[in-house]
Structures are given as structure tokens and as C-alpha cells.
Specification:
Radius of gyration: 19 Å
Helix content: 40-55%
Distance between the termini: 15 Å
Order of helices and strands: EHHEEEEEEH
Strand content: 25-35%
Number of helices: 3
Structural class: alpha+beta
Largest sheet: 4 strands, antiparallel
């Protein structure tokens, strides 16, 4: 297998889909929690709903900033060969997955996961979306190169 190198780009289209998913979810949970807070006898449910709203808000912000490649731990480039997968992060670090590397494609073909142990023995996990690649051919080429790790 020949080495494959690919730079990633911000997935702006995917961000819109995430916003369509997370903004209404967080808003509805917060509004129902607020309504229950001012209702007699239902205040204990408010804590659960505010926790869920906070959880989805943090998860949504993390997902959106990761897709836009703004987070310091967001992958910005990957290099694949038969022995290892090297992933460059936005903060300049390079993570080399060298052992127990696993490739997890989704059934819809819109994203894939990559997990493995780095040189320090720590488990690392990454999710890559189709919109983060320059074009469909680059996405397919990376998927074909990673099938070796499936």
C-alpha cells in the first residue's frame, strides 16, 4: 500500500446541519425546564432538563468547532501507510496511531471513525466527515486506504 496524505478543510455545510439539530434541542429543553421551574410541584424535573440542555450545548459546540477545525485538538491533516496513521492536529502536535488501529465507516458513507494506540500507549479517537475533504474523490481515496485497518 502506498502512503496517502490528505489535508482537511472546514466542513461549513455540516456545521449548518449540526446547528439545525442542536439549537432546537437545547432551546426546547431549556424552555421546558424554565416552564417547570415556575410551575408548582414540578421543580425537580427542571434540574434534569437543565443538565440535558447543558450537556447538549457543550456537545454541540464541541462538534461544531471541531468541524470548523477551530479546536486545538482538531485534526487538520492525515498521512496513512501500512504500519501507521499519522494525524496532525491544529495545535501542531502529531499523533501517530501505531497499534490496534481500527477504522469504523458509517453505513450512510458520510463519516468514519479512526481509533488506535499512539506511541505513548494512549487510546486516541477521531471522527472525520465527508465535508472535511476537498472533494468526493479524496474522501473515497482515504476510505479505500483505511480499509486495510477495518
Amino acid at each position: 500500500m502506498r502512503a496517502v496524505t490528505q489535508d482537511l478543510i472546514a466542513d461549513r455545510k455540516g456545521v449548518w446541519w449540526d446547528l439545525i439539530l442542536y439549537v432546537p434541542t437545547v432551546s426546547v429543553l431549556a424552555l421546558i425546564g424554565t416552564k417547570l421551574w415556575y410551575s408548582p410541584g414540578s421543580q425537580s424535573w427542571t434540574y434534569v432538563l437543565v443538565f440535558l440542555a447543558s450537556f447538549f450545548l457543550i456537545a454541540g459546540v464541541n462538534r461544531v468547532l471541531g468541524r470548523l477545525l477551530i479546536l486545538p485538538k482538531a485534526p487538520v491533516a492525515m498521512d496513512i501507510d501500512k504500519q501507521r496513521v499519522r494525524i496532525k492536529l491544529r495545535n501542531g502536535q502529531v499523533v501517530e496511531l501505531v497499534k490496534d488501529v481500527r477504522y469504523f465507516p458509517d453505513f450512510a458513507g458520510r463519516s468514519f471513525g479512526l481509533a488506535g494506540l499512539d506511541l505513548h500507549g494512549r487510546r486516541q479517537q477521531f471522527v472525520f466527515h465527508k465535508g472535511q475533504f476537498a472533494d468526493l474523490a479524496a474522501y473515497r481515496h482515504i476510505n479505500d486506504a483505511l480499509r486495510h485497518y477495518a
